[in-house]
Amino acid sequence: MSGQMIEENILEIRGLTKSFGGLTAVDHVDIVVKKGTVHSLVGPNGAGKTTTLSMINGTLPATSGQVFFDGKEITQEKADKIARMGIGRTFQNIKLFPTLTVLENIMVGGHAKHTKGGLVRFLIGFRESNHFEDALRAEAEKVARFAGVYDLKDQLVGNLPYGRQKMTELARSLMLQPKLILLDEPAAGLNPTERSEFVDMLNEIHQKGTDLFLIEHNMDVVMNVSDSITVLNFGKKIAEGTPAEIQNNPDVIKAYLGDGYQAIEKESK
Amino acid sequence: MNSTKKTKMGTLIAAAVALIAMLVLPFMGINNYIITLFCQAMLYSIIVYGLNFITGLTGQMNMGNAAVYGIGAYIYALLTTRAEMAPWFAMIFVALAGWFVGVILGYPSLRVKGVYLSLTTIAFNEIVRLVIQNMRFTNGVNGIRNIPSLGIFGFTFNTPMRTYYFFLAALVIFTLISIRFLKSKYGRVLVAIRDNIDAVESCGINLADIKVKAFVLSTVFGAIAGGMYASFMRYVAPNTFSTNLSISFVVMLILGGRGSVVGCLLGAFIITFAPEALRFLGDYYQFVYAVIVILAIIFNPNGLVSLGGRILAKIKRISVPAKRGANG
User: Fold this and answer.
1) Residues A188 and A170 placed together within one structural domain of the fold
2) Interchain proximity B185–A98, CB inside 8 Å
3) Is residue A91 part of a domain?
4) ipTM of the predicted structure?
5) Residue from the list A83, A99, A114 with its beta carbon closest to the beta carbon of B203
6) How near does any CA of chain A get to the CA of B105, in Å?
7) What DSSP element (H or E) covers A223?
8) Which domain holds residue A227?
9) What pTM was estimated for this model as a whole?
């Protein structure tokens, strides 16, 4: 088991741990995400889900444990390199650039791809750099159209309604053509219409060959899109399996509803 | 679409008018002293353009620009006098020195967040000034005299009038580079860094790399302006390049308007001419100047460039209800 990770896994986490002083936010968590699947990470508030996500994409250094992505260990890599290797990310409370337009936001997402040569080459080589800029813009427009924000492309993103901002953020993460996208509560704060629109888009992204790893609270989203689910509670993994298995797992029910729930259930019988 | 085209045309016309005004200005019967001030303001504009890339866009304060300016001036002065190098050749070394300082200073101080850039650059400014002041080969506090001026095809820029046109041409070039940088993907990412630094990394962008690039461009601008200063004044002394001057550059940027080329120009020209305009105040000049700067920053934090837009918005807000009243 140790050493190289298995080829058919896009992401593999082994014994991942994060301690903040005396508090262990994530405690020896193992997760395996197979290629071609949608994996969800669920758990009550404070279970360590976002911390896990931040350790995977390198924004938070892990205390111990290992992260493998597509056959390579990425535990010690920097966030920007991990993003270029093919892991995209969206945030729990949207992190966009409010003073830039929708299209510019999406273009920042693709900045790293079209970087060739240094600054001098960029400033002097008018034709070459204009060509890159045009290519980047064209691609950003394509992605904007896909995300349904094309009509708003020249608006400042700070003026957009919440749902459209979420779409813009997802569009931005698509610009580097990631193999895996980490989504932190993508459906939170969306109304039912927006939510179903968002789920459709996630399914479409998935069908195009990008694997998804999401944190989610909305059970209709989790049950509809995921192939497998991992449940965290107080930093520890308490269950793993298909949506049907998780729904009937007594530990999961206990974690969400407390010990009293089963007692009431027994009494009522 | 139409309105953006209109504003683009408007900007072009305004730029052309400003350029023509600058071209005919020396013939309007102003004396050499005022022409010298214009030359000074143009140099400062170039430095503030550079400052704008890093302080203006990402919000990290660089308090050491006067030192970069001084390094540029001294390298030009030493190479042309001691080494008797051809002036234009010396300017190449000046630009290289700017690049070198940017890399040396940028890598350690831009990797960390917060006030560290301000601290390292203040220290850098003082170190540079003290070294220049106390070294024998820089001739200490006496400075360096008889520096040869730059010239072109045997035409030397050795009078204020000639220098004025030379600097104006340089200013146009630096303005174009500045606009090109700000409108490029680099400018866009620097704004993104100011807006939300965490998200930029998750987009696969190497923060340190792009900040150092912007910083190096700013130090190259500063050093070249320094070389031009030495060529113009034909005399350099260490006291010119104090931390006070660095602070003045920051004031120019903030007073004029961060992130905007027009703002940089406004700031540089206004601060350069302020002592002249406020000369009638005599001893109270410093006090009044300080009060004006404080008021401007408190009530108009986005700088003079934002003032026009704000006034327009006010007028609209007043006129819209009036129209509604007429209809109803």
Assistant:
1) no
2) no
3) no
4) 0.85
5) A83
6) 18
7) helix A219-225
8) 1-86+178-269
9) 0.85
